[in-house]
Write a structure and sequence with these properties.
Shape of chain A: globular
Helix content of chain A: 25-40%
Largest sheet of chain A: 8 strands, antiparallel
Strand content of chain A: 25-35%
Strand content of chain B: over 45%
Number of strands of chain A: 22
Oligomer: heterodimer
Distance between the termini of chain B: 7 Å
Structural class of chain B: mainly beta
Largest sheet of chain B: 4 strands, antiparallel
Order of helices and strands of chain B: EEEEEEEE
Strand order of the largest sheet of chain A: 13-12-9-10-11-14-21-19
Structural class of chain A: alpha+beta
Distance between the termini of chain A: 56 Å
Number of helices of chain A: 15
Chain lengths: ~450, ~80
């Protein structure tokens, strides 16, 4: 059978590079790892069929360097590029450069990245598709007087969000009109400095919100959903613990939520793996679409565990031009899965980053236990990139069983040489509110301020 | 001239300015007071301020902007007299 490509370049590093290489290898593809000078000895480099150096340690000069990546794609004979998450995964110009070179981008079209990656545009698309959004400005707000007028309609507190922002960055809060008047110009200037665009929009701040997101897979014609993940446990707006399904929503809410995600993904004829993020108000049981991530996500494994679907494999098959193999009726939820992020941070020292050399390593195992990582005994964790070094994922027949399995797996996990956030998770897994599923996006920071590790 | 070498406390990426478009914290010849922020070190996407531990005048930067640094590596030289 002739395929549109037989060699896949992985334009990323760390555990996701390893994850993509595994999926590609299983499909009989050749893999190309790219690496900065700091990652020359990485696990991804060891596992790939070939490796290409793309520049110095600084991400701006290597993993974010489109020119260097395109050169690596040409020299290695790659027919496709998988962007992973972070770095250039949601950069429409990169997807365009890949396509312009006659290669396949494993992900959505540049247009879809542009539309759904821009928060204001995504929100407008959601409104058009009839998907509920957080009360807020329908579009970018230019003038202060316009902002004041709109905020009166939304109700305070309001958030001023950078249209090009993401990952919790580029957000300012105003509790009343005085604060809004003070913050507006600063927010626009900050947005311009950080993201290159000063466009901002307004949104109501929901006091007790859960973060619930829906996984979708599309082939550009049809779209299916793979149910939801709950990622409410966050610190500094970074997810630290994710689960599937959410323990907070009823089957009827689940159905409505997932159907709304399908509606929006279908409206943009979505191609590839994507995630629609929602805020869920526990009190009113309303859900509101907030943004879409047009890439594979860090927490995709919990969905894989409860559905049995290999999302990265499906992404690659779609990129190979195969129609969606899955019908909605074939996708079922089974049991419960939890993922905890193991970051190279010292939880006892206010989560100070902790790069360094790893000594001995003991990885948990047994049924329903998975550890996605780029670590190996003796490897170096460089200081130049994100602190995520592993994801411990468990699956069992129910949430209480999954919690017990996570407790056991965390007891097995042992990483010498660097501090990790395993210490935080050992506490969380025994926390009464975690066990009861009683939390919102503010809970973890409250618990940590009340009783630091 | 008596001088003092300011070392990096952390491994990471050295930055001479608070953001890409902003002016540098200090230039060669700038006066520094003990406690002044003279650079940032980025470690795993978190930024730490590097403060001068003596007062004086910046004599030289020994690391280029946005270059990787190791703990203990000299970042800049400060003339103290």
């Amino acid at each position: 059978m002739s395929r549109t490509f037989d060699t896949l370049l992985v334009a990323n590093r760390g555990e996701i590079a390893v994850r993509v290489i595994r999926a590609a290898r299983e499909l009989g593809l050749k893999t190309v790892a790219v690496h900065s000078e700091a990652d020359a000895g990485s696990l991804a480099v060891q596992m790939a069929h070939s490796a290409v150096s793309i520049g110095p340690a600084a991400a701006a000069k290597s993993y974010l360097n489109i020119e260097a990546l395109m050169k690596a794609a040409h020299s290695s004979g790659a027919g496709a590029v998988h962007p992973g998450y972070g770095f250039l995964s949601e950069n429409a110009a990169f997807a365009e450069a890949v396509e312009a070179a006659g290669l396949v981008f494993v992900g959505p079209t540049p247009d879809a990245i542009r539309t759904m990656g821009d928060k204001a545009a995504a929100r407008a698309a959601a409104v058009r598709a009839g998907v509920p959004t957080v009360p807020g400005s329908a579009d970018v707000v230019d003038s202060l007087e316009e902002a004041v007028h709109i905020a009166r309609g939304i109700g305070y507190p309001v958030m001023i969000k950078a249209s090009a922002g993401g990952g919790g960055r580029g957000i300012r809060m105003a509790h009343d009109e005085t604060e809004l008047r003070q913050q507006m110009a600063t927010a626009q200037a900050e947005a311009k400095a950080a993201f290159g665009s000063g466009a901002v929009y307004l949104e109501r701040f929901i006091r007790r919100a859960r973060h619930i997101e829906v996984q979708v897979l599309g082939d550009g014609r049809d779209v299916v959903h793979c149910f939801e993940r709950e990622c409410s446990l966050q610190r500094r707006r970074q997810k630290v613990w994710e689960e599937a399904p959410s323990a907070a929503i009823s089957p009827a809410t689940r159905q409505a939520l997932c159907e709304s995600a399908l509606k929006l993904a279908r409206a943009v004829a979505y191609r590839g793996a994507g995630t629609l993020e929602y805020l869920y108000d526990d009190e009113t049981r309303e859900f509101f679409f907030i943004e879409m991530n047009t890439r594979i996500q860090v927490e995709h494994p919990v969905t894989e565990m409860v559905t049995g679907i290999d999302l990265v494999r499906e992404m690659i098959l779609i990129a190979l031009g195969e129609p969606l193999r899955l019908k909605q009726g074939d996708i079922a939820l089974r049991g419960a899965a939890i993922e905890v992020r193991i970051n190279a941070e010292n939880a006892a020292k206010n989560f100070m980053p902790c790069p360094g050399q790893v000594g001995a390593l003991r990885i948990p195992g047994g049924p329903g236990v998975r550890f996605d990582t780029m670590l190996f005994a003796g490897c170096k964790v460089p200081p130049y990139y994100d602190s995520l070094v592993g994801k411990l994922i468990v699956h069992d027949e129910s949430r209480p069983a999954a919690l017990a399995r996570m407790r056991a797996a965390l007891a097995e996990l042992h990483i010498e040489g660097i501090h990790t956030t395993a210490a935080l998770h050992r506490r969380l897994v025994d926390h009464d509110d975690v066990i009861a599923g009683r939390f919102d996006t503010g809970s973890l920071e409250t618990w940590l301020s009340e009783s630091p590790l | 001239m008596p001088h003092h070498d300011l070392q990096s406390p952390l491994p990471g990426t050295f930055y001479r300015r608070p953001s890409p478009d902003a002016p540098a914290f200090k230039e060669v010849g700038s006066a520094v007071k003990e406690g002044d922020v003279v650079a940032l070190i980025e470690v795993m996407k978190q930024f730490s301020e590097v403060c001068a531990d003596v007062s004086g005048t910046v004599a030289a930067f020994l690391v280029e902007d946005a270059e990787p640094v190791e703990p203990g590596q000299v970042l800049l030289r400060i003339e103290t007299a």
